Amino acid sequence: MVELEKEEEDVSFAELFEQSSQVPGTRFSPGDRVTGTIVKISKETVFLDLGGKSEGTADLGEFLDEEGNPTVHEGEEIELRISSVRRGIHLSRAIKARGAAALEILRDAQRNQIPVEGRVASVNKGGFEVEISGLRGFCPISQIDLQYCEKPEEHLGQRYQFRILEMKERGRNIILSRRVLLQEEQEKKLKETLASLKPELDVEGKVTRVMDFGAFVDIGGLEGLVHVSEISRARIGHPSEVLQPGQIVRARIMKIETNRKGAPKVSLSMRVLEPEIWDTGLPFREGEVIPGKVCRLTDFGAFVEVAPGVDGLVHVSEISYQKVAHPNRVLKEGDPVEVLVLKIDEEKRRVSLSIKEAQGRQRAEAYARESGGEVRLEVGQVMPGIVEDHKPYGLFVSLPQFGVGVRGLLPMEELLEKDRADVKKKFPPGQEIRVEILSIDDQERIRLSMRAGKDREEREDYDKYMAGGDKAGKMGTLGELLKSKLKR
């Protein structure tokens, strides 16, 4: 209530002040230098007594220090310029003079480092022609903005404040700069920003530049760097995949240091503000086959990104059924791969993966679809298997359709007789073969055979012969049957 009454008081005072300032007979012109006494300071305005029943107003923003506090007080006498006489007398530290007095006013502005207002009239080879107080000034292209000016035409027709750097030949050669004023404003904002910044503070800013190594973000007159590794928990190739200049982002201040020149250096992170996927829950479970992307290769295996910020390890022994000397022989960074989740360690936040088991699972599922039957782990079942290892006494065959690590032994005597020579060459690791389950012992060891199916076929043919051999000789003699079988 007190604040509301104060605002009403300020508004009423401003209205009365404006009315009283329009006194007949007063003669003030834009650009005039006047001295006045501050009679009141409101939230946004400074009211001044100019003498002779004349009053003026000025923007309080021109009289604030680095912390936002007024640098003037009621009763103080100050000198300003008349900026406008429309609807009252308006004062400013910036010059907007016209007419014959303009040249002298501009000289005073140069001497006293007072900003002057001008309009960008045209563009030439080296910069801009600026209309200022009825005269022509020149602003080099490097002095129009803080950053390099790539599109000069965007400044045409704009009104800016400038500082006079040089003035010769009775105003025919005036060199201007907008950049120095912007730098002063930036430094003022920088000091205000630095006073409020500290590590672990969350801030909002605008992306100003996107580089190969990260992105710069303006957080209030000060640029901080978000390194590419701190942009997202998901692995990205280039910052431009996520960020664009002008984008508003939130980040956390990680460090505040100074560089060799003593300038502040702020490190930011957007990544830490994203929820940790281990806390929200992984989008997969053990035993699932999921897509991933190879992100790093080592001597002992390959790291595969399977979720934003989650890299699982494929040990070198789990890359292929064939022996792999080094992961880079078969994989490279960026490769998309299918992996089977072997184990999830929530406590250590680790995921173990297998490429070969994923391939085996996919083969088994394809076989089940094609055969149209259910594959069961029972004696007599015929199914595909994948050669995994060789031993003097036989082959170990992976059976991925029954789960990770399930395999059986195919003894040498259970191979077809013609395949028992040069077994390693005929059955290299990774090759798919059809096998039959001969037995499963009480320790769940599985014995396989390739020969059993062949023997059964021959017995079936013999049984058919014996059952139908007397019917008009349609089945032929036993010798003809065996001869036909040998040919086949």
Structural write-up:
- With 488 residues, the chain is α+β, with helices and mostly antiparallel strands.
- It folds into six domains: 20-92, OB fold (Dihydrolipoamide Acetyltransferase, E2P), CATH 2.40.50.140; 102-182, Nucleic acid-binding proteins (OB fold (Dihydrolipoamide Acetyltransferase, E2P)); 197-273, Nucleic acid-binding proteins (OB fold (Dihydrolipoamide Acetyltransferase, E2P), Beta Barrel), CATH 2.40.50.140; 284-358, Nucleic acid-binding proteins (OB fold (Dihydrolipoamide Acetyltransferase, E2P)), CATH 2.40.50; 374-449, Beta Barrel (OB fold (Dihydrolipoamide Acetyltransferase, E2P)); 455-487, no CATH class.
- It contains eight helices and 25 strands.
- It has helices spanning 2-21, 102-111, 179-196, 277-280, 355-371, 423-426, 451-468, 478-487, and strands at 33-41, 45-51, 54-59, 77-84, 89-92, 116-123, 127-132, 135-140, 159-168, 173-177, 202-211, 214-218, 223-227, 248-258, 264-269, 289-298, 301-307, 310-315, 336-345, 350-354, 382-391, 394-398, 407-411, 432-440, 446-449.
- The strands form five sheets. A five-stranded mixed barrel has the order 1-2-3-5-4. A five-stranded antiparallel beta sheet has the order 8-7-6-9-10.
- A hairpin with a 4-residue loop joins strand 9 and strand 10 (173-177).
- It is rod-shaped and about 140 Å long.
- The model is unreliable at 1-11 and 19-25 (pLDDT under 50).
- The termini sit apart by 106 Å
Instruction: Sketch the major β-sheet.
Output: 5 strands, mixed, barrel
Output the strand order for the largest sheet. Answer: 1-2-3-5-4
Share of helix among residues?
A: 10-25%
Number of domains: 6
CATH class division of the largest domain: Mainly Beta
Q: Architecture of the largest domain, CATH level 2? A: Beta Barrel
Cα radius of gyration in angstroms: 43 Å
The number of helical runs is: 8
Average of per-residue pLDDT values: 82
| CATH homology superfamily name of the largest domain | Nucleic acid-binding proteins
Large-scale geometry:
rod-shaped
Low-confidence stretches: 1-11, 19-25
